Amino acid sequence: MDEWEEIERFRAIVVELELPRHDFSLFGVMCPYCGKTDRIHKLEDPSELGEAPAEYDEIWNKFSPKGELVMCKFCRQILLLSESRGSASPLAET
């Protein structure tokens, strides 16, 4: 499975599990796909999800060292939050 397939599978799992469950939105962080600045939510760590499939854990562990994993609840894209928390970027490089 290549990186894009893994990202799509991760997104499918996130949608299936109805994540993120956090109501807290990171205001001011713009989604690079849709431009919304009020829809970015932190994704749950696998330890917060007792029912998460092992695949969620595996993909999480692959991408989380690159930065904090978040999701735009408007366009449903999974993103990386920068250390400065001021911007989000696509999970994979083009």
Kindly describe this structure:
By secondary structure, the chain is α+β, with helices and mostly antiparallel strands. The protein has one domain. Helices cover 26% and strands 16% of the residues. It has a four-stranded antiparallel beta sheet. Strand 2 and strand 3 form a beta hairpin. The longest helix has 14 residues. It is globular. The protein starts with a helix and ends with a strand.
In short:
The chain has 94 residues and is an alpha+beta fold. It has helices at 3-16, 54-63; strands at residues 40-42, 68-72, 78-81, 88-90.
Determine the mean pLDDT: 90
Overall body shape: globular
| H and E string | HEHEEE
Q: How many domain modules? A: 1
Poorly predicted ranges: none
Strand order of the largest sheet: 1-2-3-4
Distance between the termini: 16 Å
Number of strands: 4
Quaternary arrangement of the chains shown? single chain
Strand content of the residues, in percent?
Answer: 15-25%
Features:
alpha+beta; 94 residues; 16% strand; four-stranded antiparallel β-sheet
What are the SSEs and their pairings?
Elements: H1 3-16, E1 40-42, H2 54-63, E2 68-72, E3 78-81, E4 88-90
Helix pairs in contact: 1-2
